[in-house]
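Ticket #4471: structure output looks truncated?

Reporter: J.K.
Steps to reproduce: submitted the chain below (374 residues) through the standard prediction queue, then opened the result file.
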Amino acid sequence: MTTATQPRGEARTADHPRAGRTERLRRATRWWPALPLVLLLIAPYSALPLPGLLDGPIGSPGNLQLLALCLLFGGLATGYDLLLGRTGLLSFGHALYFAAGTYVTNTVMLEAGLPFALSAPLGLLAGAALSVLLGAVSLRVSGIGFSMVTLAFAQAGSILVQRDPGGVTGGEEGRAAPADKMPAALVGIDHTPELYWIALAYLVVVLLVVGRAVRSPTGRVWEGIKENERRVEVLGLRPYGFKLTAFVLAGALAALGGIVHLLLTGGATPQTTTSDFTLSLLVMVVLGGSGTRWGPMAGGILYTWADHRLGDLANSGAVADLPAVLRVPLSQPLFLLGALFVAVIYLLPGGMARLPARLRAARTTTAHKEATTP
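Returned output as attached by the reporter:
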């Protein structure tokens, strides 16, 4: 008895339409980020309300300020994930480079009288130079030792800012940016849309830089260092230089974010120098999904939105009218944020970025069970 088999060429021909459809679908979905980008660009012109998410129309100044902060921290968390999710470096001092961008830019405007256009590059350069200096020292150790060294540097920087040496940092109160040195097109409530677009531009720049870096040969070495640093050494590569590159790039992106934060808030505040600030970035990255393309951004946006909106909920009349057993915990924004974080960790292991894959896996499992059930 003979078995008829389909010629290989015919099989390839039969599979060709399906392969062609898959390829066309892949090309069509490749540009999907353009749609949310367009929606974000036109948000200042929108009068659409989002009840429960925002107070009033999207394009109102207060909502645009909140959205700008969400975009800023989405970009900042994406840059921080270069260390944590891409290279496996747990740094507790990332706030230091963010604060360097803010404080140096503001101090140069106040003390040297230079305009923002000249002060901002100096702030960016200071953040990058500081990351080179401290990264070169911190990366001499690894593991928990590296984390502790970065924490020590961050604590020293925070204490220095709060001690207000020479009156240049403003101590615990910080210092407001000089309005006469800021661009006229960015000062005042009427120019909130321009500030929002700057925050959006920062997010896009960070996503492009991080995406390009991760796909580069250096990015592949980062991935190898994260998986097994000893194996990278065996291949004849020096992990120290590659780790320092990731450290400096992440620090420069953080300094740029600090400059944008100065524009959005109109001043430098010591809260951005504390280790709690870096811990917030860590929570953002874990919440969204460390080591993923869009996860840190989503985590940064969600955390920042929740940080502001849950504070409003905690102080609302609806919570004030609850019994004490509910009112006391719900009136604490940090409690609400912690509960949200724990819920996501337990319900979505790997962060929000893993949700689509988990849904597809669940759908496939269900379809397989249905197909095999008599």
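Triage note (M.O.): checked the attachment and the full token line is present. Residues 239-265 form the longest helix (27 residues).
Status: closed, working as intended.
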